[in-house]
Amino acid sequence: MTQRLGQYQRVETTTTIRVDPRVVLGSQLLQLGQVELEQAIETELNENPALERLQDDVEPLSEEFILRSVAPHELRPCSEDFEFQRSLPNDEDPPDWTDLAASQTSLHEHLRAQFLPAMPRGYRALGEYMVECVNEKGYLTVELEEIALASGSSLQETQGALKILQSCEPAGVGARNLQECLLLQLRDADTFEKKLARRIIKDSMDDFVARKTMPIARKYRVLPGVVEAAFEEILSLNPFPCENYSANHGGHHSPRSVGITPDLKLTRTDQGWSVEVLGPDPTSLRISRAYSRRLKELEAQRNAPKDEKRHIGAAVQRANDFITCVEQRGQTMKRIGEYLIQHQSGFVATGQYQFLQSLTRCKMAGDLSLHESTVSRATMDKFVQIANGEIIAFDIFFKPALRIQKMIEEILATENPSSPLSDETIAKLLAKKGVIVARRTVNKYRDRTKLLSSRKRRSA
What CATH class has 400-459? Predict the structure, then answer.
């Protein structure tokens, strides 16, 4: 048996796709908000010496400043009288005493101070997201499954976080419905009437809404007077636990407690609309002159050191790519703002949801000749300030059902409490405003916003 050894040569041609690093960098910067972009710029300035930032806070030298530096004695007062010297105005600007006042704590800041320290380590992102899902009335407006998916946590971890949130003050915060909110406020029931009130809310809520005293008295074998006392305990509870907190602490109406920073500002002046991209100005970034000059010298030399030339060239190229990506981010945001003014002018000008038109990210991307992922990155988790001064999330423009929900809320807010409107009547009122929906659609949106039916609103 013989063995043969041989050598073979084979040539293969393969095709691979390489992503341009500038595309990756541009996508990353586009997704950042105003605060995160500022942090990214500071990080790049620290890591890349070829990138510099112009200081715009340097004021030109005034004539008085030059005279004080060159001939300070010439500007001194001539009189030696002490009272004259003391009465001279101070050179420094007087402080604005409103800046020294303590800023009022917002509801979300109040919840973070209690909630986040009680969370286990490594779950801060889950805690931050859950706090932001609490509305100004104290209710959790997002389903636990969505919170778990958005924060990268399990459903079990989210449920545990919810229990911690619901243990915070004010009592009832973090509830997902009215019944849960009232039960949370009675979790430390220490009297018989409060314990009975808790049982009534849990098992006989319909009888309480209908004010049926006798069936409850027979069910729990107590006197009707005790049931009435339990009713009083329930009526003393707050269905909107954080509403009083917002009113007493300035709420989101106080300019000092606003924690949301808009990334885009749409204003209307006598000259027309203007779009302002807020945040760091890309024109303040430039390539270091020393690095540019040295790179030109190395390129002009024949026997220039390769390592130095490679290092300086890479730093300059990196700085140039970073500046270009920051400029592209600003241009994309501005185009989106101009598009909103063109297609959502009624809502942008007034903030009234009846003027909100149906819009999707896919349609906007097609009209702007952009990829849908580009529009998604540019609008995700960002906010825009519209003409009436209100700061809203970009997501509002892409929720077609939100318009109907808000219009239903506005109709119910102005109804006669003694004669509540039925779902059929609400549907007819919407039809007069140009919104054609069925009665069951009104019912669905009303339930989604935790609004009672006309019969229960009349009883309440």
Answer: mainly alpha
